[in-house]
Amino acid sequence: MPAVAQRCARAVIEYDGTAFAGSQYQPKLRTVQGELEGALNRLTGERVRIRFAGRTDAGVHATGQVVSFCLARRPRGAGLDWRELRRRLNRALPPDLAIRSLRAAEKGFDPRRSAVARVYRYRIRDGGGRRPTERHRTLEIDERLDVAAMRVAAQRLTGERDFAALGSHPHGRTVRRLDEVTVARHGELLEIRVVANAFLRRMVRSMVAILIEVGRGALPADAVDGLLASGERSGERALSGRAAPARGLTLERVIYSNTKHNSESGNRIG
């Protein structure tokens, strides 16, 4: 019989990062990639490899992570479509990981290289407020933070520049375009929203740590310029060890410029 052409899929996934050692596979550790590939391998009978739009660290959550994978054969069960595969995958996955949507990937689609921006949100509950049911998704701080000062500092972070002071990259490429950093208060909850073309490892949490220090009054808003410049001059992270806890951070969305890549189309495999 003639070989069946590969069928490639793209999916939006959601996970609670609390019990994961990160998104990418790591030997002997529980990861999002390990759980997804294990479930796909069991359901399809072939060795499937997942590609991510972006890596998330241990403890970081996602509601809009984008992944892709290809199947060399038709999954077990003639006529199985993407909708049915999604249903079966969600039954096979653990409670802290789910497939939100699954469909055919457009030709040439790559979840990382095709993306033009990523959107993260960091949640802080300040002023001593406590919500036990949200403790794994929100950082709790006793002090009441100065949102106005944090907003001034946030504006100083935007633009295209070398962010070596805030994070690292395995190949040393540390220039990024930071499009948006906003700080919004909703009662006792603060939300910091960050949009960039890409992020360095620990970059968002390092930014949040700086904004928290500004909000506490421990750091002036205009100190941001000097902190960023120090990393640019030294070529390494100037703020080593200064990063907000992972539990408050969520990857909310990955943005693609190609309208085909952003549209919903097709559910059947084959």
The count of DSSP E runs of length 2 or more, i.e. the number of strands, is 10
- Low-pLDDT stretches: 233-238, 263-270
Outline type: globular
Largest sheet: 10 strands, mixed
CATH topology of the largest domain: Alpha-Beta Plaits
CATH domain class name of the largest domain: Alpha Beta
3D architecture notes:
This protein is an alpha+beta fold and 270 residues long. It folds into two domains: 7-113, Pseudouridine synthase I, catalytic domain, N-terminal subdomain (Alpha-Beta Plaits, 2-Layer Sandwich); 116-253, 2-Layer Sandwich (Alpha-Beta Plaits), CATH 3.30.70. Helix content is 24%, strand content 28%. The chain contains six helices and ten strands; from the N terminus they run βαββαβββαβββααβα. It has helices at 32-44, 82-92, 147-157, 203-216, 223-234, 259-262; strands at 7-15, 51-52, 61-71, 97-104, 115-125, 139-140, 159-162, 175-186, 189-196, 249-256. Strands 1, 2, 3, 4, 5, 6, 7, 8, 9 and 10 form a ten-stranded mixed sheet that branches. A hairpin with an 8-residue loop joins β2 (51-52) and β3 (61-71). The protein is globular and about 60 Å long. Residues 233-238 and 263-270 have low confidence and may be disordered.
Question: How is the topology of this model organized?
Answer:
Blueprint: E1 7-15, H1 32-44, E2 51-52, E3 61-71, H2 82-92, E4 97-104, E5 115-125, E6 139-140, H3 147-157, E7 159-162, E8 175-186, E9 189-196, H4 203-216, H5 223-234, E10 249-256, H6 259-262
